Amino acid sequence: MKPIKQHMWGGYSFNPDGSVKPRKIDQAFLAEARSEHKLLTRSGDVTEFIEKISSTDEIKKMAAEKIDRMVEHYSDHSSLAKLATLFKSELLKDRD
Q: Do residues 85 and 68 touch, judged by C-beta distance below 8 A?
């Protein structure tokens, strides 16, 4: 019996191992589905982030942590470290 090379209804072709070769439209659909999945995942992350930062203290804390990470990452930029120190002192000031 000869191996199947093409499905009679869908126009699918098969690899020598018997797996279906994806058509261009299938690849485009898969790429779009992956893109939508990423978007939905990220929008869920954004929603959680917004719920998390409901207080100004939490925002200040997160900003200070981000500044520390930037200074650590760009440790050879002394002006960035000075700017970060100034920013953090203003950010963390208690304003009554």
A: no
- Cβ neighbours of 77 (radius 10 Å): 13
Q: Which two tokens stand for residue 91?
A: 């950010």
For residue 52, give every residue at least 6 positions away whose Cβ sits within 8 Å of its Cβ, in sequence order, or none. Answer: 58
pLDDT, residue 66, reads 84
User: Residue 32 is part of which domain span?
Assistant: 23-52
Q: Model confidence over 17-28: pLDDT tens digits? A: 888 777 777 778
Instruction: Please check whether residues 43 and 79 belong to one and the same domain.
Output: no
Q: H or E element: which one contains 9? A: none
Q: For the chain, how many residues are written?
A: 96
